[in-house]
Design the sequence.
């Protein structure tokens, strides 16, 4: 699912399953089984992604949605509370805003 | 003769190297004391030294201290960003406030020539600054210079803001942080392993130190009869809650394997252990390491140091805090394999351990780190720095 397609204006509901797929690829199927991934899932707390996994995830996002999506740059401008509360819904909105 | 006062947090990993350096200072005829908010077992304190807890001044804070210590168990269950907040806002800063009053009394009574403050016990440095006493910092872990989390500008600003506010609470209005010494910072690893080629000049990498008393008995007879490769496992002194889960996975991975696990953990987490597991709550770790072929640990720094002092390969399973930084250094040095605790698969445990035992490149890399540790100078070098620091500081004072 890594190849660059031409994602036209996708809706949030269309983006979310793609992100779920990327998360599964990054953290491994057996660890995703126990997780209920929704738009409300917090990135660091619920999904427990570490910095290496976040980099791998952001590479997949770039490859799929386009190189203009500076996911790690966007993250590095956040303060601690924003990082702590960041959820998949926020990421979906961010990606949509870049498309 | 000089008087050195170590100020330490209630975390044994941070205290341990200061006990070793303190023992060397005592052997050289200096007077040495420690100040902390929680007692340590008397057997750990080097003969002639004194560990002082200002109980009278701490009494009103006791419930809060206990709550904060218990809160550290949450580390494995919260995100990296949250552990940063837990560390600074919920642990280091309150501990600094709690001990300050008692520490000031200890300093007035002991009259140290030098205050040696651990990198997270800000009270030592703040008290030294306010009383005009020269201050040294001890850093037990490889410093994460410009690390991931702190490279985010707003996170860095949050850290600086909190430190400066804390300093202001104690009447210090300098625009820069003084909670770590900019004169001398002793780091208990090698510069090569820490991977900071351009460290500031006051940061002195003296390598691991040794010599704190450890008289723990062990069943050496049973160990001598072992014929399979010996793997030492430790989760350190914290992280009590996750032991059962962690060791369940180890049992599943290694119970039927031709190797022997020597585990430093209380045996009562399970009714029975497999025959190839030797389990004991507290162990003479440094002595044991010399007999081992590989090590599994989460990245607690005393175990990491003991491992590479003996040139052994490591399977590191980082859980929280600075473990991830240490794990990345081990991978960079090639002396071990990292398996993240949260994504620990039994099969990966097995294959990684056999890779470490059978592929000599890990052991050679570990031996190279061992060399850098030896060259760093250890206790002798630490004492040399502390003695010349005390001598020069005196000259400035006159």
Sequence:
């Amino acid at each position: 699912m890594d190849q660059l397609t031409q994602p036209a204006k996708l809706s949030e509901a269309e983006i979310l399953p793609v992100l779920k797929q990327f998360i599964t690829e990054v953290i491994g199927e057996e660890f995703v089984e126990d997780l209920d991934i929704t738009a409300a899932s917090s990135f660091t707390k619920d999904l427990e992604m570490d910095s290496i996994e976040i980099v791998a995830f952001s590479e997949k996002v770039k490859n799929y949605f386009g190189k203009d999506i500076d996911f790690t740059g966007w993250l590095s401008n956040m303060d601690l509370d924003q990082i702590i509360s960041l959820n998949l819904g926020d990421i979906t909105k961010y990606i949509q805003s870049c498309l | 003769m000089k008087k050195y006062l170590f100020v330490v947090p209630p975390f044994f990993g941070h205290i341990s190297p200061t006990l070793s350096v303190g023992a060397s200072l005592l052997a050289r005829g200096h007077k040495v004391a420690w100040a902390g908010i929680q007692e340590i077992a008397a057997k750990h304190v080097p003969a002639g030294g004194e560990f002082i807890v200002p109980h009278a001044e701490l009494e009103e804070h006791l419930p809060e201290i206990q709550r904060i210590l218990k809160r550290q168990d949450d580390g494995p269950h919260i995100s990296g960003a949250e552990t940063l907040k837990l560390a600074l806002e919920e642990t280091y800063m309150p501990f600094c406030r709690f001990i300050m009053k008692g520490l000031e009394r200890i300093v007035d009574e002991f009259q140290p020539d030098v205050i040696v403050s651990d990198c997270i016990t800000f009270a030592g440095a703040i008290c030294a600054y306010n009383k005009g006493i020269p201050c040294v910092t001890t850093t037990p872990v490889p410093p994460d210079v410009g690390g991931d989390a702190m490279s985010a500008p707003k996170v860095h600003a949050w850290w600086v803001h909190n430190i400066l506010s804390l300093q202001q609470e104690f009447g210090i209005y300098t625009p820069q942080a003084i909670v770590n010494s900019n004169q001398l910072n002793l780091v208990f690893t090698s510069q090569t392993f820490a991977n900071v080629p351009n460290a500031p000049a006051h940061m002195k990498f003296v390598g691991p130190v040794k010599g704190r008393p450890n008289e723990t008995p062990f069943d050496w007879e049973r160990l001598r009869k072992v014929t399979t490769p010996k793997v030492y496992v430790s989760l350190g002194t914290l992280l009590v809650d996750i032991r059962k889960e962690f060791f369940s996975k180890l049992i599943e991975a290694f119970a039927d394997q031709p190797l022997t696990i020597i585990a430093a953990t209380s045996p009562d987490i399970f009714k029975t252990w497999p025959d190839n597991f030797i389990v004991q709550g507290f162990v003479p770790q440094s002595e044991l390491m010399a007999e081992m072929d590989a090590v599994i640990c989460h990245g607690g720094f005393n175990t990491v140091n003991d491992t590479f002092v003996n040139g052994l390969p490591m399977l590191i399973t980082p859980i929280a805090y600075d473990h991830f930084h240490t794990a990345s250094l081990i991978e960079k040095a090639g002396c071990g394999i990292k398996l993240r605790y949260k994504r620990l698969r039994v099969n990966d445990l097995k294959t990684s351990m056999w890779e470490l035992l059978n592929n000599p490149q890990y052991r050679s890399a570990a031996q190279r780190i061992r060399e850098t540790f030896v060259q760093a100078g250890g206790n002798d070098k630490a004492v040399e720095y502390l003695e010349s620091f005390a001598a020069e500081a005196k000259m400035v004072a006159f």
Residues 4 and 64 of chain A are 5 Å apart (CA to CA).
